[in-house]
Design brief:
It is a single chain. Helices cover about 55% and strands about 10% of the residues. The protein has about 350 residues and is α/β, with parallel strands linked by helices. The protein folds into 2 domains: about 160 residues, P-loop containing nucleotide triphosphate hydrolases (Rossmann fold); about 130 residues. Strands 2-3-4-1-5 form a 5-stranded parallel beta sheet, with helices on both faces. Helix 4 links the parallel strand 2 and strand 3. Helix 12 packs parallel to helix 15. The longest helix has 26 residues.
Length: about 350
């Protein structure tokens, strides 16, 4: 986990090694044509990409170590209306970033800058590029243009083709120590001490997630529902379990929206199961869901976990079931069926 404060003064919590590197590159005018920002979700990779882009287009005359925040270019970049900064991502309910999206993206980057500055393209979730999109992008990366920068943000680095990786500067974002997130929430986001303690631990090293818990009450309430649903799911008869699955997933969820929702639910359940194992190993001080300790105790009782080696075996079985359900999602199994796989396994 990231343990040092952000010395470069960029507006991201932790990962100072990333920002120090980028600041030096800017100061020395040694900017690469392509970057890959990789690491777990909710570490601020896309925010960092936007801030780096803002640094590149900033009109300040004293050198672009960080954007001035006052010139017209900076103000446009902050409002996401700068004509030389482009962002693309997977469209809602689509499985991939399409080749047409990439062609439009490349076309925009090939045009002359309106302000004689850099042209910056950001691809959010680049692991979602279709095969055709990869091939189209690769042609551009093979022939980089002066003052054109492409930034790919990814959570699944291994999903990127080696041909793209080999042509890019790779910057790895790491999980941030909970005490850094805790202090940041109190100092700059007006969190109470109890909020800072709960959200910094619950975020598991992901600062953007901690902020989302704090600022988006609906999101946090939904998260609590998913936590509590796991214990309830395993405590019901089979028909009730299936009804619970539909309530959890949402009857209206369809297509990629349902896949995303199911993946998020399984992720939460996997983390809860990890916490159960830590409790079984008498390492409760390391659990992620400390704010839900009562729910965890109830979950342990409801699944009738034995103690000792038998208890660990039962938890490992739970882990394997959840892993299998995740694999079903990746294999395009219906999201509802993937969750029901968990329900019928106990």
């Amino acid at each position: 986990m990231e343990k040092s404060k952000n010395k470069s003064n960029w507006p991201i919590i932790g990962n100072s090694h990333i920002f120090e590197f980028l600041a030096k590159s800017l100061a020395k005018n040694n900017v690469s044509g392509s970057y890959i920002f990789t690491g777990p979700a909710n570490l601020g990779k896309t925010t960092a990409a936007h801030f780096f882009a803002q640094s590149l287009v900033c009109e300040a005359s004293d050198g672009p170590k960080r954007p001035c925040g006052k010139c017209s270019a900076c103000l446009q970049a902050v409002r996401n209306i700068h004509s030389d900064i482009y962002l693309i991502k997977k469209e809602p309910d689509k499985k991939n970033i399409s080749v047409d999206q990439i062609r439009d993206f490349i076309r925009n980057l090939s045009m002359s800058s309106f302000l004689n500055s850099y042209k910056i393209g950001i691809i959010k979730g680049a692991e979602n590029l279709s095969e055709g999109a990869v091939n189209a992008l690769l042609k551009t990366l093979e022939e980089p243009k002066i003052k054109v920068v492409i930034i790919l943000t990814v959570t699944d680095f291994e999903a990127l083709p080696k041909t793209i990786i080999s042509r890019s500067q790779i910057l790895r974002f790491r999980a941030v120590a909970s005490d850094i997130i805790h202090d940041e929430l109190i100092k700059n986001h007006k969190a109470s001490r109890s909020q800072a303690k709960n959200f910094s631990r619950l975020s598991a090293g992901r600062p953007a997630l901690a902020l989302k818990f704090m600022e988006d009450k609906e999101y946090y309430e939904n998260y609590k529902t998913y936590v509590k649903s796991f214990a309830g799911l395993l405590d019901s008869n089979l028909n009730d379990r299936f009804s619970a699955i539909e309530d959890i997933l949402g009857a209206e969820a369809r297509g990629q929206e349902a896949v995303k929702a199911a993946a998020g639910i399984i992720d939460i359940w996997q983390n809860l199961t990890r916490d159960l194992m830590l409790m079984e190993l008498n390492l409760a001080d390391l659990i992620q869901h400390e704010a839900f300790i009562k729910e965890l105790e109830a979950l342990k009782n409801k699944v009738n976990l034995p103690t000792g080696q038998a208890g660990l075996k039962a938890i490992l079985n739970l882990i394997n079931v959840l892993k299998q359900s995740r694999e079903y999602l990746a294999a395009n199994v219906n999201p509802k069926l993937a969750l029901e796989n968990v329900a019928v396994s106990f």
